Batch of 4 targets.
Target 1
Amino acid sequence: MKRLAVPLKFLEDLKMKSVRELEGDSTLLGGFLWHLYLAVQGCINIALKTISKLSLRTPESYADAFTVLSEEKLIPEELAKKLTAMARFRHILAHVYTKIDLDRVHAVLHHNLADIKEFLKVLATKLQEKKIDVSQI
């Protein structure tokens, strides 16, 4: 979970930048998209490691991993829905099938960064309750 500290800090530092500022600086934009990808992929990896550690049902997709955690009451259902959408969004970032909508990406930065932080906090608490060493996830 500590691996997400760097991408989250980078993204947090960019929250005050406008879409136009990002568009005007390809280095900054590239860093932004990369760190957003790392943050979302990091959440997916944590979800998958948790599922494996607890021997839960195998998710059908990356997005389904958050549903599995919700089914097991490890994260709230509403949070799982938000993270599922982010996992699908990650697919767009990873494969760049279409032109990336920077307004949408910017909205993710402003509205979903808190969801990632909530996910880390809630899951860490639940794992500690189950006597699982969070550093192993």
Target 2
Amino acid sequence: MLPPQRLCQASGGHFSTAQNSLVAAIAATLFQKTWENVPSTPRTLWKQFNPGTVDVGQDVGVNGFLKAIRRLSANLVFATVDTGTGAGVQLMVRAKDNDDPKGLLIDQLRAIPLNSPITARGLVTKVQFLDPSMSPRLNPRLQMEQHRDRLLYRVDLDLTHIEALNRMPQHIVVKKSTEYPAPFPPGFPAQSRHLQLRFSDRLHNRILFRDSVANRLRELLRAPGLCEIETPLLFKSTPEGAREFLVPSRRHGHAYALPQSPQQFKQILMASGFRGYYQFARCFRDEDLRADRQPEFTQVDLEMAFATGSDVQELVEKAITKLQNWLNVEWVLHYHDRDLSPFPRNEMARVDKEKTMGWHSIKKSFPHLRYDHAMKKYGTDKPDLRIPFHIRRVEHVLPEHFIRMITNLEKPMVEAFVVKSELHLEYHKPMDDGPPTMLVFDPSMPLDGLSSLDHDGVKKLQCNGPGLEDFAHLEKGDALFFQAREDKPFQGEGSTAMGTLRKLVYDLAVQKRFVQASRELLWLWVTHFPMFTPDTKPGEGQQGLTGLKATHHPFTAPMTPKDFALMATDPLQALADHYDLVVNGVEIGGGSRRIHLADMQKHVLRNILGMPADGIKRFHHLLEALRAGCPPHAGFALGLDRLVAVLSYADSVRDVMAFPKSMKGQDPMTQSPGPVSDAMLAPYHMKLVPSEGTASEETASEDDQGGKDLA
């Protein structure tokens, strides 16, 4: 509410002197009443009492949210307070009779809406460890100074004072079943993200879990000597591949660009004499969104001077191994409605221990798999090692008429896999190379249900020859999937049609509960990627004009001297010293050894990619750093959002981010991006112009500037 003087001014002077005096008097009265209801903030709000050190009879203060009130009689009331520290506090008010002053305290307590923030004082009547094993009396070896304030205690207070610091609105109803992202009611919509974070235990715990993972990673990266260094967020546009977010500047014709990654800065740091670097970097890419992708995200970025790719892989693998094994010390996984989510281990007394489990300990080094082998066996460069069936090449044992039946391609290769009967699902989806064909093994049918292959084809398929072991011991109900594709080498593709089908069949089987998906996290390295791939959209992305693009980014070094020579004669055959870290079908991160010689880097940009002179000029700062005696170096970027989502068994990275964007790149809570006006754009030498075509009603409703573009 405006103060009285401001309220009179706001009237615009349209009242008479007497009317203004009356308005001022009314406003002063209302303002005074409002101000009287504002609680005085205690000086000790932040510092909570430590339940592990308080004694019975001690006067203590507590701050938190009022969670429940139980009235046992007119003169006896209990209430619970959520302190957010793992300590459960119960308040008790007992009035001896109707004239007891504590009766007023009961009325005051009952008048406070549930879930309101409160501050209270009282005398300690009881301190109880809900998990006796965590008591310092029974477990004197416990490092209480590190864990005491996070243990789950039950503390009873005989209430002497309580005050509401704010009041929960009555129209916001919180039920036990309230969860995100259920529709409202009973759940809270995305526009009320603050309520989702506050009242969803799973979401709240995942954010706390993310903090634990980040802190542990910092410790593990500092141990080998890496130094945390921040790099700028206001950069400039450089053709690295992904579409960038531009930030206008007041300098005419110039704009900043938000970094896709700190790639160039971290290489320059290696040229600056730093032995090792890391940071939790914010990255921005204006790309199509999906469950594991956001326009802004966090990656754990690192770079090491005088290092090879193997050195980096060893460091990252040790960090991931120690991190996952450490999780079982601080956290458990809790089953809730068939879902798993992390739960603080020191609060296990709040849940059924039978519904908890830990993470599998990593005891072996991660396997390494070449890119081309991964594509042949799994149909993807991000293999999920939990899927029990593999892809086999089988056209050499199939009759010609069957191949012609499933594809129109000339001289195709045919791949197949066997799905055991318990995973059998119907699936039909058109493919560019023809639809997948499914045959079901059934001994009661002619040729066991494989008559499309004729006698000779069935015999050859079940001969138990090399690569055909899966087909030698078929059982009733087993399904055979066949798919044809062009017989050509892989050139950087992320997956094949057969690889997509394989994962889809398995995911559907898990979804339909035909099979229980393994909860084990199976890590592996994928290496030996092609250095360059055909560019179907020359001039875009990396802005090359030769029809080639760098498979990952143009700063990756060739794997061997042979690959260096192939860069000049046959670039598509050159292999990159690049490595991806994959777990359960999700790419968690990737890295490479970098080109550290300026002439080689310039050759890649100009001669192999065909980048125009103005594009190369944008990398002048990097080329100069390399030219100034930059040492060999290698690095890695670990997607923190994806890592936390995988470790916490979340369905989407949005479930491990406090304020994620929607699939449209919008923030539902703050309604960003917001509309702009010509007045706002004028300092940046920009203005709004009518867009081509008519904006949709949906766009217009989401953006008041619908129908206009920036120029």
Target 3
Amino acid sequence: MISIFGLIYSLVELQHFRDNDMLQIKKQQSELLVITSSSLDQKIGNITQHMDGYANQISTHEIKARDLGQIINHDLKVNYSSILGVGVIFLDQDENIKHHRLYWELQNYYLVNKRYNKTRDDEVRWLSKSKQHPKRWSRPYYDKNLKQYVISYITTFYNSETHQAEGLIVLDIDLKGLVNLIAKNIGEKFTTVISDDGYYVYSANSEKIVTRASFTQGRDNDSLIDRQIFNYNKTKPCLSLCHNVVNQQDIETYAIYQHLKNAPWLILAKFNPQDLELLSRTTDNSDLMIKIASITLIIICLGLMLIIRQMRARNQYKLYWVATAFVSLCFLTATVYTWNVSRNLYFVDASQTITSDHILQTAIKKYQKEASLKNLGEITQIPTAIMVDTAEFLTSYNLQLTGTIMQSYPIESGIQYGIKFNNAFDSQIKLISDSYTNNSHLLIWSFQTKIRENFDYKDFPFNHGKIWLSISPLNSSQQVIFTPNFSYYNGLSDINANYGVSPNIIVPGWLIKGSFFTFTNDDSRMIDEVDSYATVHLPALTFNMIINSTIGDAIITTITPPVVIILILFMVLLTISKHKNKFIEFKLSSIISSCSGVLFTIVFTHVSLRNKLTSEIMYIEYIYLLMYIVVIMIPVNAFLFAKTDLKPIRYGDNLIFKSLFILLTTGFIFAMTLYSFS
């Protein structure tokens, strides 16, 4: 009855925990979508406001079209991030395209007058669309001259007297700029952007962008979901966050979406049940352990009831063995099951993880405030991506990492380049690539370093850990801070994904279960605390990899030896008998001698383990404690059997002690397993 109540309680609590966890995850993703849509709206609104303003100024002759590139250059850094170029198309009196065109292309952070690079097809398409919508955004397309995927904003300027269209202004923006905004917040994995005419502006499936697809052309599950959400929004426009559940092919997909105010785009994020489970970062260990214990006890009770019913009709001695074997098998099966599920029973403190640009800027704000108070100027953020290629444990606490680091520095910033590894030794770093883009100086480093990690081995051999790599600028006197490069990873909202880890990486005996970035105290910065009014103690960027041991390796290398020793002790126990046998002879001295030899083996392996691992009481040590108890109790039992006539000892030729040996052993291990992982 207690087991049944325990099972019901654990199921209710686990469901309650899961429901709350799902609500929290949905809330977090909703907040990220709101931040993403707000960022897009702000960027789009800024662009359209300025471009429409320039078109009006050209219409009223306040500025000349040929001066547009120079005018935009004044506002380039502030208002036009991700700009690639701007062009002007002139129309004749019949609103046909003239041959005279202007184009300015971004080169080294500055717009320069270049040969007009648009094709006639592009112009004709824009002209026909502009007659219906004088101000509009294009679909993403590949620009053969810029050699990039771009998205263009087209606005029309008019003759102030006749109000006839005189030309079009076309602003080309790198599609990566839009993608970067998504990656910095909710992440690219779950997000889709659809225009009001049904075409994909952004999708995690790049094929839809390359083929300039519409969701009406797709028959895959994602396209069908997109169509339903699009129709929901068309029926009832969603200018603030909306939620919906779409059932497609018997799979319930949770969708959040919002229509932008400054662009004809719908942004939506979709999560199937598996996605939501993967975003879960906490586990309710205690209730799960209660559930396992309750189910195990219920099965044992039902099995024993069946066995007891058979005791009247069969040999009781045999049924004692059957009963104890059945209970022991239940304990053993439940223990192995708990070992298996323990691989996912770890708590990751996500409160300090940097999963979005909003969290990043909030974290940096306090340092920027301190820098402003001390008149130290702006803190420069250096987007940094880390890719770990290999990880090798040299000892239980020391490991060697190799990989690459990519950094994007502002052009002509005057910042001294360089990286140092904190709390590391024998570090080697080499610059392998030095290149420039339109707006950044890109550096790629290869590295090899050795780090001493402070692993927690209390659950050994089924333990979890965290490999961390902490880096900071080589010159600690600069107001520079390394930050995660969200665009490189396509977003960092899912810490259970292996971002920054090579898919081919193999860590013998370990599984990598996720990765994330945090800021940690940078003790390597040589700052004079007495004279700290002239400095800001900036944090180090730390890349963390969540790891746990493989169950096969743990059982074979660590669990099997104690189990073999326990079985040997059980066989020694079976030799205790009042019946003489020409093959097996019971001698008290032989029992004591055998147990003494086993004791030395246990002590030696235990001491060797302790010399290798320094931790509080480890899980495996409960099994060693059990072996110490068993190796003492067997000689005691043998002595009592040989020297006394106690009925519990003599009953059935030491049946009680023999039959209870494996039962109590497996029961103790099961109880300690539940306690350790709860």
Target 4
Amino acid sequence: MGSVESIANPISLTGSPQHLPLQRYSKEASPTSQRVLQAAKYTGAKNDLLLLSQSSQRRQKHANSTRCHSENRKIEQNLTESNFEELSSSCSNFRQALQPNIEILGDLTTSQSNAIRRVWKEEMKRCGNNELELASRLLLRIFAIDSRLRAFFHLSNVPYFKLRENQLFELHVKVTGSTLSFVMLHLHNPTAMSKSLQALGARHVIHTGVQYRSNYWKIVNQAFIEFVNADQTSIDVFDAWNVLGNFCVEQMRIGYKIEYKAQKVLEGLK
């Protein structure tokens, strides 16, 4: 069975060829083993390159994602800043789409146009060629016919005899005066008149409380005849100013309706 001493003694592996260090053993290995080791090294290097490439791609994707997120934030910010402009632009395009793209012939004859010009010229002389005075007379006549209409223009708390001193009233006078002047200069061009009158009608939606079906429009037509005393002249002059008054009111109401619909679209886009 052998002695106990021989079993207890430690066995030295130093001299055993099967337990040489790896470097030495690899040198003595077979060509097949060397090829296996080289293939393993190549595979490991390839895997390292693949991992490095994947890591680089992940970093690139992260950078792209961060940059994309930053760009999206900038885009959203730009959209927010330009939101009102875009809505206003859309609303403006909608207004243009609603406007009738036709030539407006009008109902004035040549003799009626001449009669209107003659009366206007006489009234301008009496006012010292002050168009704003005539515009003021028109608005005052409207409020004289129905004092309740002042509330539509936010002037209900202003006494009638102090309206001329009110700044808000003066603003309405300036807008009305410029429209009146334009109409009188373009009696021969109903299409041009319609644009100016529709713009004035649109202002009623924005700056007044006038409703589309209000009796205000009938009173405007009546005042349009009376503020130049056309009702106190011949029937021909009366008819001429009545035709022009009807045309002005009709075009103003068209502009009112266009602006009203445009405002509804704008509210829906907000």
